[in-house]
Specification:
Layout: H1 3-10, E1 14-20, E2 25-33, E3 39-46, H2 51-71, E4 77-84, H3 92-104, E5 109-113, H4 119-126, H5 146-165, E6 174-178, H6 182-193, E7 197-201, H7 205-215, E8 218-219, E9 232-235, E10 254-255, H8 266-275, E11 279-280, H9 283-286, H10 289-299, H11 303-311, H12 313-327, H13 331-354
Parallel strand pairs: 3-4, 3-5, 6-7, 6-9, 7-8, 9-10, 10-11
Antiparallel strand pairs: 1-2, 2-4
Length: 355
């Protein structure tokens, strides 16, 4: 991959490569856009096959964070980071070293939890930099953002149900969740409390045992997730799973999940979903509750406002779905346009202020 060419194509501002062999650190920090404010985005730990795969993922995730913050109405830009490796390489030294690289950016990037990283990991980063959120309550933080991320997805699903079925009530509806880790688990909890029937797909038997014991439901194996007879498919694990191979298998009329970058290719896969008559809730719209939560550490917002703003994802999702329908476009195109309009408006205001 040509790094500068890729940055130019998607308008990224900065990419920082980080390495420290003594602690096993190999990481990439990508800053996409800081028009609305400092770039805030998760720190993901993942065993990428190649460095090129890691770079492609972090660039796409950073761009999604820009659009997520814009659609959530937050004064934040978009960034993301990835650490290359297995969960077994985790150590406080690794995250403290990574924190020093975050500190070197002087507040342009603020990190938080993401896949395979935790509140404890963020606390280790905090020892080296103040530019980290999602730390423990004892440190003045909001803790794990996963419950709020899941709450936003829950409200996004409700919006889709209203548009497709005429009622937002999940009671009696069947939702299949792919990935029942932090976000998927809490999503299952909210849906169960609302009376939904649940299906699960996950490679971790312990996670499956937990949700089955607490919420009931059935387990799906592999590609059976895509062809499940249900009302909603909710991908809550790795991104890129809604693609040219999985879309032809889908039976559900709605796709709305908590994973970042659900579509493998926005243009191709968004159009394919429309062609099949499937309603897709853009992931960065419905999963922004986690970002709203950690953002409150910067603003001092209380839990009540965080809950209210996360509940507002219901209205935002309906706005996107209705805009796409009215304009005859895909939902991802509709949400992208709304996000870009807000960024352009703020950019103009700042030029007037500076000039």
């Amino acid at each position: 991959m040509q790094v500068l060419e890729s940055m130019a194509t998607s308008r990224h501002e900065q990419v920082l490569f980080c390495r420290n062999e003594s602690v096993g650190l190999r990481a990439i920090i990508a800053i996409h856009d800081t028009t609305l404010g400092p770039a805030l985005g998760g720190c993901r730990l993942y065993p990428y096959t190649t460095e090129g795969d890691a770079l492609e993922d972090v660039l796409r995730l950073a761009r999604h964070m820009t659009y997520k913050a814009a659609m959530a109405g937050l004064d934040l830009g978009g960034g993301h980071s990835v650490i290359l490796g297995e969960r077994g390489i985790k150590s406080k030294a690794l995250f403290r070293t990574f924190g020093r690289h975050v500190e070197s950016l002087g507040g342009r990037y603020i990190c938080a939890e993401d896949m395979n990283t935790t509140v404890a990991d963020m606390s280790a980063i905090r020892r080296e930099t103040r530019w980290v959120v999602g730390v423990g309550h004892h440190e003045g933080g909001t803790g794990d953002p996963a419950p709020f991320c899941a709450l936003g997805v829950f409200h996004g699903i409700r919006a889709c149900l209203e548009v497709v079925y005429g009622s937002p009530d999940p009671a009696g509806r069947t939702v299949a969740i792919q990935g029942v880790g932090n976000v998927g688990y809490h999503l299952a909890r909210f849906l169960h409390q609302a009376g939904a029937e649940l299906m699960y797909c996950d490679f971790d038997s312990r996670r499956l045992e937990r949700v089955l014991a607490e919420f009931g439901g059935v387990v799906l194996e592999g590609d059976d997730f895509w062809s499940a007879d249900c009302d909603v498919l909710s991908p809550c694990a790795i991104g890129g799973v809604v693609n040219q191979y999985s879309i032809p298998l889908i039976n559900a009329p709605i796709v709305a999940g908590g994973a970042n970058r659900v579509l493998d290719d926005e243009a191709r896969d968004g159009a394919a979903l429309v062609e099949r008559g499937i309603t897709y809730a853009p992931d960065y719209v419905v999963n922004s509750g986690g970002l709203i939560s950690v953002h409150s550490e910067l603003t001092g917002w209380g839990r009540g406002k965080v809950e209210d703003d996360t509940a507002g994802i219901f209205v935002t999702t309906k706005r996107v779905l209705n805009k796409a329908s009215a304009e005859g476009t895909t939902t991802i195109e509709a949400s992208n346009r709304l996000a870009e309009q807000r960024i352009e408006q703020v950019a103009l205001l700042r030029r007037l202020h500076i000039g």
